[in-house]
Amino acid sequence: METRDITVLELRGNAIGSIFNQSSVEEAFQNKTLRPILKLQNDLLIQVFINYAVKQKSVFFSLSPDKKLNYIENVIQRDIKFRNALKGMIIAFFTLDEYAEYILNSSNLNKRMMNMLVERLKSQVQLIELN
After folding, report:
1. For residue 95, which phi and psi values (nearest 5 degrees)?
2. Cα 31 from chain centroid?
3. CB 90 within 8 A of CB 106
4. Which residues have CB under 8 Å from 124's CB, separation 6+?
5. Binning pLDDT at 50, 70 and 90, where does residue 123 land?
6. I need a labelling partner for 67 at 20 to 30 A (CA). Which of 56, 61, 95, 110 fits?
7. pLDDT of residue 125
8. Mind listing the pLDDT tens digit for each residue in 87-122?
9. Residue numbers of the domain that contains 67
């Protein structure tokens, strides 16, 4: 499994954001693991959201900009099946050690993960359009 972990780390790149001695375990995990994965998976996550919105009768695409932001947040918070699929796309890029760390505090890390994903999608809402 060492080969997989090395490959995953090389693919993801380095930590994004600062990690200090006084950083909490969750903050360090966020900057070392979650941010690089979200950056790597960004294009896929946008396409997955577009596909979800299309399957939901494309209502999203006719909303005002403010309502689009609310839609993104509500969907990821309320549609558990969709949220779990998104989580899986992120967790798939954990190393074995990161996964062991994740399961110790999965509830808080899931909140961070989904909040970061929501903010990432909201900040790129202009890219979420039908082609």
Report:
1. -80, 170
2. 13
3. no
4. 42, 46
5. very high
6. 110
7. 95
8. 999 999 999 999 999 999 999 999 999 999 999 999
9. 2-127
* Cβ contacts of 1 within 8 Å, gap of 6 or more: 96
- Whole-model pTM? 0.91
* Rounded CA separation 61/73 (Å): 15
- The amino acid occupying position 100 is A
Both tokens of 30, joined, read: 């966020």
* Distances 43 to 49, 50, 85 between C-alpha atoms, Å: 10, 11, 15
Location of structure tokens 């989904």: 114
What domain count does the chain have? 1
Q: Which residues contact 14 (CB under 8 A, 6 or more apart)?
A: 36
